[in-house]
Amino acid sequence: MKKLLAGAASSNITPKCEMQNYNGAIYRIGKENSNIFSQIIMFKFSKIEALLISSDITFIDRALVLRIRKECQKEFKIPGKNIMIAANHNHTSPATCRSFLSGAFPQPEYLDFLVNEIINGVRKAINSLEPIQIKKGTCQSPGYEVNRRLIKPDGRIKIYDFPTDLKLNYQFEGPIDDKIQFIILESEMNGPISFIVNYACHNNCTGSFGGYFHGDLFGSIGNFIQARFPSVKAVSCLAAPCGNVAWYDPFERKNISGTELAREIGEKVANNVIYAYKKLKPMKKNLLIVKSKNIKIKERSKSESTFCEDGCRGESKIEMKLARRRYDLEKLELEKRGYGSTCDIEIQGIRLGDVAIISNPCELFVEFGLEIKKKSPFTTTLISSLTNGYYGYVPTEKAYLYGGYETHRTVYTSRLEKSAGSKIVKTSLSILNELKNFQDGKNARF
């Protein structure tokens, strides 16, 4: 029987100096356990090779994805179409692409550094290739998740703000995803080498308005897993669809810091994953298949935006001033742009034995993730958002009726047409079904 090989590595991508994050806030090198990383996993089965790269950054645009793929293909001969590159939505990281107009331009020197460190990590992962077995599983989320869209008595949306909104008796506009799916790669000799964890919660506990670089919630998950398993070389935390889901403190503690909460939630997620992992048996099937499709999705028209005039982020003078700082610039920019253009959206799938990872380049609402998992032909389906590009929030069509921050038509926020979510779900399921229907010995490459 052919063996599936894998290798894993992590690269420290923390800048050596102060830098702005995606919204222009200044961040600097912090205390212990505050570094940010890229996690790299290399797969090889027969002649097929694939890479999974995830980084502690907020967004990754299409240009940077193509640059990293080109470098990997040039040095390691890995086809670009077989490389999945994810941002895990860490807000306390340097800007790596334009996100909105009041934010920061990425510094070219940092992009060079980031690409170089990723390539170094890929080299380490390739050099550590070894036969592995795969375990897949599902566990309960820790209970710190909340749908952040609250419906006010007047029918408008209020974006949840911890802890001031804890006592509001508002209706939640949508659900959460309370199940975490994961994959563990085990060495035949030395124990687990990598965990891939798919958690549907915004990765921004430690804040977005200045401070220290930090791995935040997803970095904390990795820290706790690696503390339990020294053999683990990389913990890849992929952001499941959670455009409308945020963290909160169910114990209603007003004085807990974001860093403390990130560590607390991270430890609980890690413990739940590890507890479920210990009961699992390896999968019997060895298989590696990669497939992707590019679909064209139109941009929305300018007329569909409220530019934060609905008060969803608050209606005080200070809150409205912050809204104006961002959205007035967006509105002016949109008035200069033409309309009717389309975006090239890549949906990519990787099958590992009887488990699949499916990606999209958006901040999908949680409803779409739940639908994909429910209809997927795989019992374990990891959905990686903000992957292979960045095209903003993709709300449900129902959400547009209520308005709110994620539905605003700006240059970056809610960029795609209202039917984008349904199209992404349809294409994702199509790829998953093709991966599932693959027969050994046939169609070795799509």
Question: Your description of this structure?
Answer:
Helix 3 (216-228) crosses helix 4 (258-277) and helix 6 packs parallel to helix 8 (420-436). Mean pLDDT is 93; it is low at 440-446. The longest helix is centred in the N-terminal third of the chain and has 20 residues, at 108-127. With 446 residues, the protein is an alpha+beta fold. It has an eight-stranded mixed sheet. It starts with a strand and ends in a 10-residue tail after the last helix. It is built from eight helices and 22 strands. A hairpin with a 2-residue loop joins strand 18 (342-352) and strand 19 (355-359). It has one domain (5-296, 341-436).
- Which strand order do you get reading across the main beta sheet? 6-5-4-1-7-12-13-15
Strand content: 25-35%
Helix and strand content put the structural class at: alpha+beta
**Helical residues, percent:** 25-40%
Q: Work out the count of structural domains.
A: 1
Strand and helix order: EEEEEHEHEEEEEEEEHEEHEHEEEHEEHH
Rg estimate, integer Å = 21 Å
Query: Total helix count?
Result: 8
Give the oligomeric state: single chain
Roughly what is the average pLDDT, rounded to an integer?
A: 93
**End-to-end span in angstroms?**
22 Å
Largest sheet: 8 strands, mixed
Shape, principal axes of CA atoms: globular
